[in-house]
Amino acid sequence: MVNNRKKVSDVFAALADPTRRRILESLARRGERRVTALARPFRISLPAISRHLHVLERARLIQRRRQGRIHFIRTRAAGLKEAQKWLMRCALEWDSRFDAIDVLLAEGERKEERDEIRRENQR
Question: Do the beta carbons of residue 75 and residue 30 sit within 8 Å?
Fold first, then answer.
């Protein structure tokens, strides 16, 4: 359980940065790419891109493959699974709470209608 929490925290921490999200979007659109090609559209240094890639790697959102001195990066969809499960659990819990609130509000409205009918009948 604690390990899953860390995985989810790592994913959300990685996704919190707009540069890292853009890197993932680029990889999703174009597939596996060389680090230098991936870095080209960003106005930051190669070492800065490398740090972003390390964060994404630690969160298990990307996978690195080396061919000689060339590093290739691709997305790792499985890295999102724990975060998706967490979001789904939250959404289900919130939906059930909203459903309970809807029931309470509907009961309150029906009670108000009954009370108003009683008042009218008493007049």
Answer: no
Distance CA 114, CA 116 (A): 5
Q: Is the pLDDT of residue 2 over 60?
A: no
- pTM for the model: 0.71
CB-based burial of residue 73 (10 Å sphere; 0-12 exposed, 13-18 middle, 19+ buried)? buried
Helix (H, G, I), strand (E, B) or coil at 62: strand
Neighbours of 15 (CB within 10 A): 17
For the domain made up of 2-79, give the CATH fold.
Answer: Arc Repressor Mutant, subunit A (1.10.10)
- Closest CA relative to residue 6, chosen from 89, 62, 82: 82
Residue, of 1 and 15, whose pLDDT is higher: 15
Cα dihedral value 94, 95, 97, 100, nearest 10: 170
Paired tokens of 78: 């499985």
CB 80 within 8 A of CB 12: no
